[in-house]
Amino acid sequence: MLCPADHDITEFVLCGLSFLEHSMASGSSNGVLRPLLLGILVLGVFVTVFLMYFKPDKSWFCPVESVSEHVKNLISTKSDKNATIVLIWLWSLGSKFDFSVCSSLFEIDNCFITADRNLYSKSHGVIINHRDISGDLSNLPQLQRPSFQKWIWMNFESPTHSSKLSGIQKLFNLTLNYRQDANIGVPSGTIVPAEGEENFVPPSKNKLVCWIVSNWNPQHDRVKYFNELQKHVKVHAYGRAFEKYISDNDLIPTITSCKFYLSFENSVHKDYITEKLFNPLSVGTVPVVLGPTRQNYENFIQGDAFIHVDDFSSPKDLADYLLLLDKNEEMYLRYFEWRRHFKARKVQFPVEHACLTCDYLRRHKEYKEFNDLDKWFWGS
Fold first, then answer.
1. Where are the membrane-spanning stretches (predicted)?
2. Looking at 21, 65, 107, 157, which residue is catalytic?
3. Is residue 157 annotated as a catalytic residue, yes or no?
4. Which pTM value belongs to this model?
């Protein structure tokens, strides 16, 4: 007795049951056949339902090209035979991005950014983030370095918050860092020309001074300064230490709502000027900075665009000045004169770092090594 394959599922089941009854009625070993036949029937029903209603993806039957094969095919084409390959080996910046945007975003052509370690031997540059290097260096590439390849030491934390590791002093060819004297210098932001002259008017404000802090340490200079400053002027402080969490979506609106923002760095080092400066600059809030010297800041931004704590003999003097500016709109608006011809541009983190690395490698194919990393970055 056979059940036609073109029956619907209900008819198939009924046919199967009829077949089971017929078999057991005619067999002398019902005790043995019954469980076996029932199991076969259940399995048949399951397979039939699966094939009727589930349509597998073609990739089940056709192998999907691996990432490495895809890139190999791209760089093997005639138009891309001179492509520069940048391999991201260690990268814990918490942000993934489209590896193919160097051309569209920065007009940097013939760059292939990849995280596929199978392409190590073909990569012109290997980016290694300092914070991800294990203490015994065991997670660094173990294969011999090709003669044309450069290892790039990347670090955007300050020396105070970067552990010195034994064995990396003479390991790298290039530095990718916030410092202006790095081989590939990428500050947290830049001041760029505006499109025509603009009579900039800052957004309306409902707070005088604000501060958003995530890393709270009573021993930090910025915390000590804040503790004194708040004795003389109200500071709207946010963060874990104040039990006032600010989400990523609320960060910029909060800064925008304040006349002044405390752009206090967590440590003081040459060129260590982070997004804490460029966030308020970009939204029409005056940054009050604590970090390297005023002269160092003025390498990045016009001197009349910010207030430096070093310009005042004490936190009380600074507080008095902020209260004065609050009452004198003409004086306050002078801090936005630079916006007539310029605007603040924040770096596109981290895609810009990878693309600028590729651009550097394209333009600098000569041999290069860096043998004084400890002295250069940590000063010893």
1. 32-54
2. 157
3. yes
4. 0.77
Distance CA 112, CA 326 (A): 51
Q: What is the pLDDT of residues 225-262, one digit of tens each?
A: 999 999 999 999 999 889 899 999 999 999 999 999 99
Same domain for 341 and 195: yes
E strand map for 91-188: 111-114, 125-129, 150-155, 174-177, 184-185
Cβ neighbours for 251, distance < 8 A, ≥ 6 positions apart: 212, 279
Q: Is residue 301 part of a domain?
A: yes
Q: Is residue 360 part of a domain?
A: no
The C-alpha angle 298, 300, 301, rounded to 5 degrees, equals 65
Which CATH number is 230's domain given? 3.40.50.11660
Other Cβ atoms less than 10 A from the Cβ of 77: the count is 9
Q: At what angle do helices 30-53 and 9-26 cross, to 10 degrees?
A: 170
Report d(CA 9, CA 42) in Å as an integer: 12
Number of domains in the chain: 3
Return the percent helix, strand and coil in the chain, to nearest 5: 40, 15, 40
Range of the domain at 146: 67-186
